[in-house]
Structures are given as C-alpha cells and as structure tokens.
C-alpha cells in the first residue's frame, strides 16, 4: 500500500503547477499531532520545479503555538479562495484536491500548442529572402 501512495504522490508532483495561484498560506502549530500532512505538502510545493511554474506565487508560513488547527489557504489570481483544514487529510488527498482546482483554473488550459511552419522556421514568407520573380 505504501508503494501505491508514493507512486500516486510522485505522479501528482510531476504534473503539479502553480500558474493560477497567487498565494498559499500554511498555518499550523508544530506541537500538535496532526501536522504531518501539512508539513509534507509544504515541502512538496516548495520544490524548485513546482515553484518555477509561477515565480509570483507567495508561500507564507504562519507557525503558531496556540493549538491552532492546521490549514492551508490558497488564493487564486481570479480572486477565489480555497481552504484546506488538513488535520484529517493525508498528503495525497490535499495534493489531489489542489491539483484538481489548479488544473481547472489553469490559464494555459485552453491554449493550443504553438505551430510553426517550415517557411517561418527558414525565415521565408513575406519580407524574407527568397527568389525574386521578374
């Protein structure tokens, strides 16, 4: 079972991006028992390959010592907010839900792949150097 969880987590991490995310705030009390999942998610999202997908994303950590329940607040570029109360969620569940929302709001989702023609690659077309007709 642990292998399947690691495999699913690594699959999500490879596809994760933060393009539509403006800010992620992690709030937790490190002395509580139920903070392992939020710490794991924070370390996962702090990977360079994920952070490079949107360098404007702010990761903010609010560490308290007042028995605050762990939560993740996600602010999207369109103004929508998403709150995870993570005390009873696993790392995989949090990443899965976050990936669903991020994919849904991805600004590049509706863009098609950029197509280049042979003439554009060669510098041809109008204004390029080609054969002159008399």
Automatic annotation (TrEMBL):
UniProt cross-references to InterPro entries, sorted A to Z: mtLSU_mL53, Ribosomal_mL53
Predominant location category: mitochondrion
Keyword Mitochondrion assigned: yes
Annotated keywords: Mitochondrion, Ribonucleoprotein, Ribosomal protein, Transit peptide
Source taxon at top rank: Eukaryota
Gene3D superfamilies in the cross-refs: Glutaredoxin
Region of interest (Disordered), ranges: 106-134
Record's keyword annotation contains Mitochondrion: yes
Any one of the GO CC terms: mitochondrial large ribosomal subunit
Localisation per UniProt entry: Mitochondrion
Assigned protein family: Belongs to the mitochondrion-specific ribosomal protein mL53 family.
Protein name listed in UniProt: Large ribosomal subunit protein mL53
Species name: Elysia marginata
Lineage: Eukaryota, Metazoa, Spiralia, Lophotrochozoa, Mollusca
